[in-house]
Design goal:
With 207 residues, this protein is α+β, with helices and mostly antiparallel strands. Helices cover 57% and strands 8% of the residues. The radius of gyration is 17 Å and the shape is globular.
Length: 207
């Protein structure tokens, strides 16, 4: 499977960790967004939305990291990462959508204008980011992992996001449940070393 990615990207790192968890081999294809490589006709033909991560499995292209993660888990039959029970699966999906639409989105809205458009920091957007992390802290009050007491694909996606918050200097110690979960995930998420290498790459933007 061809995998178009950049190592510093949290969504890309989530897919790489999921691949490690299910034993999938990815043919890594670095795509330099800063150089506009995503706009090359050959890539736009694969993915008209021209975003990363993008997975190509034979003649099947797929993008949006959380969709790719679920696809890999189902393709390789790792039910423990995405349970079949409708209620348990619904909680995993809720956490994935929370990651995409709230936790990662608030990070993106606060930091990316500063990093790539040299915009001033917006304190209201920082508050929104704190609120989002507070929600996640609440989710973790009664469970060991994000969607229960077992590791799921939701944890893999969320730890890519939370490690990016950490790399940016966001103080996770204010959120004890999140911090405890984060330390656990560092030890138990397959392929976390891949994630850490990408985090180190992303952190250079803040140095």
């Amino acid at each position: 499977m061809d995998f178009y990615y950049m190592p510093g990207s949290a969504p890309c790192r989530a897919v790489q960790m999921t691949a490690a968890a299910v034993g999938a081999n990815l043919n890594l294809k670095f795509l330099n967004l800063m150089a506009g490589e995503q706009l090359k006709p050959e890539f736009v033909k694969i993915n008209p939305q021209h975003v990363i991560p993008t997975l190509v499995d034979g003649d099947f292209p797929l993008w949006e990291s959380r969709a790719i993660c679920v696809y890999l888990v189902e393709k390789f039959g790792k039910e423990e990462l995405f349970p079949k029970c409708p209620k348990a699966r619904a909680v995993v999906n809720q956490r994935l959508y929370f990651d995409m639409g709230t936790l990662y989105q608030k990070f993106f809205e606060y930091y990316y204008p500063q990093l790539f458009a040299k915009a001033p920091a917006d304190p209201e957007k920082f508050k929104a980011m704190e609120t989002a992390m507070g929600f996640f802290n609440t989710f973790l009050e009664k469970s060991k992992y994000a969607a229960g007491d077992n590791l799921t694909v939701a944890d893999i996606s969320l730890v890519a996001t939370v490690s990016t918050y950490d790399a940016a200097g966001f103080d996770l110690t204010k959120y004890p449940n999140v911090n405890k979960w984060f330390q656990l995930c560092k030890k138990t998420v397959p392929g976390y070393d891949i994630n850490q290498a990408g985090v180190d790459e992303f952190k250079k933007l803040f140095d």
